[in-house]
Amino acid sequence: MSIGTIILRLCLATILGGFVGMERENKKRAAGFRTHILVSVGSALVMLTSQYIFSLYQGLTNLDPARLGAQVISGIGFLGAGTIIRQGESVKGLTTAASLWAVSCIGLAAGCGFYAAAIVATAFVFATLIFLAKMEKYVLNKNEYKLELTLEIENKPGKIGEVTTLFGKLFVNIKNIEFEAEEEETTTIKFVVQLPKGMSKDTFFNSIKSLEGVSIIQ
After folding, report:
1. Are residues 36 and 120 in the same domain?
2. Residue 4 backbone dihedrals phi, psi, to 5 degrees
3. Within this chain, do residues 158 and 121 fall inside the same structural domain, yes or no?
4. Percent of the chain having pLDDT more than 70?
């Protein structure tokens, strides 16, 4: 195998893994851009190593070139498990764990030179994470009036209480709270809320904007 082929396969694994990782990074998940690249490149390297060992000892002993790759698929579970978090009755991180597993398979495909399958699989994974997620949110919001929003709140006593008190006055039901980042002056919190029937998203957002020291990120 030439050095050019090796570089091509590792570069393709880097690009495809990073492409999927960007979406997870934008969602501020535990496993983001760099993690997905590392998983994809590592998987491609394992596949390249398998092919190298197979060619080196071909005819001398019985070797299965897919053996190391199979260990990647089963072994990636420990990394995926680290992204799964249980919060009350809900479980977070399953999609990220699944994307890591998919990226490891993409890396294996790129590593063995199965370029078409690696590229098409990346397209399907990315479409699932982006477009199907939007459709899922649309269906949930339409049927259950659920809404996700991220607020940046000043680190002052009682500020978070003001937000939750406002939600109570508006009869907005808080389904989930997730503290995403805490800095010296502000705290970033992601809310999943259920709006009462008849309340529009714009009305809800305008009520939040009336609070001093609270801004809507998304």
Report:
1. yes
2. -65, -40
3. no
4. 76
pLDDT for 64 equals: 67
pLDDT at residue number 30: 61
Q: Which CATH number belongs to the domain containing residue 157 in this structure?
A: 3.30.70.260
- pLDDT tens-digit readout, 125-178: 888 777 766 665 665 555 456 778 888 888 888 888 888 888 888 888 888 888
Name every residue whose Cβ is closer than 8 Å to that of residue 26 and which is 6 or more positions away in sequence: none
115 is written with which tokens?
Answer: 């370029």
Residue 66 is part of which domain span? Answer: 3-134
**Helices vs strands, H then E, count in the chain:** 9, 6
Are 90 and 170 within one domain? no
Domain boundary pick from 112, 134, 156: 134
Pairing of strands 146-154, 214-216: antiparallel
Q: Distance from CA of residue 145 to its chain's centroid?
A: 24
Question: Contact, 101 vs 80, CB < 8 A?
Answer: yes
Residue (of 76, 130, 65) closest to 103 by Cα position: 76
Total domain count, the chain: 2
> What is the number of other CB atoms lying within 10 angstroms of the CB of residue 10?
18
Residue 174 has phi, psi (to 5 degrees) of -85, 120
Helices 94-111 and 33-57 cross at an angle (nearest 10°) of: 40
48 and 155: one domain?
Answer: no
pLDDT category, 199, cuts 50, 70, 90?
Answer: confident
Confidence (pLDDT) at 89: 47
